[in-house]
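Annex B, item 7. Sequence and structure tokens for protein A, then protein B.
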Amino acid sequence: MPTTEIEVKSCPGCGARLPEVALSICPYCVTPLGLAQKDDTEESPYAARIARVLAHDTLPEVMAWTPAEGPAFVRGGQLVFRGKLTATIGALLGFWAILLGSGPLSALHMIGLAGVLGGSALIVQGKRVRTEAISKGMLRRPAVIVDRRSEITLKSLGGSTTYFFEIEFEGGLRGEFCWPGRGINTEPFTSNLPGVAFTRGVELVHFKHIRV
């Protein structure tokens, strides 16, 4: 892949920040950029492994598989669930207040109304979070994980780890993708791993290992 230096701040298609090298397509959304020129650059050392992934018998099955969505989508679903539960409890309290003959400004009525309104707000927020989480289309591409780094964010009651994977695709195209940690029971992907990368914009949703 060409390594001619060129100043490009972001992709016009997805808005992702691009490396300051000449690229023919965006590594995050495959929007044509037309910045690279053909040259005699030496082939990537990972090209042969990616070629073996492309020729692997299980590739069609892996490409057709759909992984579970990331933490942001799951968090949106949790908000929707909590909102529905809160709104249901609020509605039941309001109905109970009617059966008891309580006035419209009674404490039970007001608590029920607050529950319905608060639950509805959570539902709207959760749906918005889920929509944003899948707003970019999922790409499925044969690839090799070249390198990995991590960043730890400390919080008052603990912290979270975000992993960043440098991934190379067919043709030598590379990009760095983030993968929020899933906890101590889920191991992050390792470097030098061949397979299929499932990505949404700059997020790595999953990497399916193919032994080659």
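Protein B:
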Amino acid sequence: MAHRFRAKTGFLSPFVTEKYFNKIARRVLNIPWSTKDTSKGSAEASYEERKKKQITTQVTPELWFKQDASQVQVDSIYKTLPNAKKALLRETPEPRFLWKECDQTQQEFPSTPEEVGVDVMTYLEQRDCYERIKRLQVPEFCVGSIVAVTRADPYVPRGKVRFVGLCMAKNHWQNTLGATFTLRNVIDGEPMEVNFQLYSPNIQKIEVLKHEKRDKAALWYLRDYPPNNSSINETMEALPYTTEPSTFVQSKEESAKIEKWFDQVRKKKKRR
């Protein structure tokens, strides 16, 4: 009997007989298919009621602060994070430079992380940045300035290379060891862009030949502009450094040249 039953099923153990199989089947059939308690007052019933209502409200930051004013009155957040309000509004917070927040007359880095209200990792990282800047004596420069960078290179006879270019962009977190800036120059008709790490040990010297700013945070549009707009003379002498950068103003003649250059490019494309 067991042999014939095994032949029909094919998936049971050879020790399972038809009598034992029917016994298991009766137990399984007695188990209710649904264990949900939908009576009034049960958890399932209340969940279904809430699901039917589905009241959705859009809470704005102003409404949130009105409902819970204690979020604004927490002083400790603003001591450790001066730009915490922007962080709460899902905006990119402004980077903190710990060496700039200290007393400028002392010219020293904070002695402990508790003094500036940051964690140990941030404190150690910014201390390394401060020591590197102090050793190189790197002046402040912004996007649009003309900068010369001398870096070590073991593959050249002199052991170092100097590159002069227009600062096109700087990444947002200039207070970390991953801070970078990009210089652009057109040499022998070929545009070149070099991305430097500000705190890299390979950098030997950073010179600001002309401290100037523009009305944009990044100058990537220069890639589509005439080469003359990003051509810098490599033998350019440094102008007197000023704390406040001068503002770049484009003349009408330069604007007319750029428009004429774009017209020529459009005509060439139409001919093709």
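Comment on protein B: The first strand starts at residue 146 and ends at 152.
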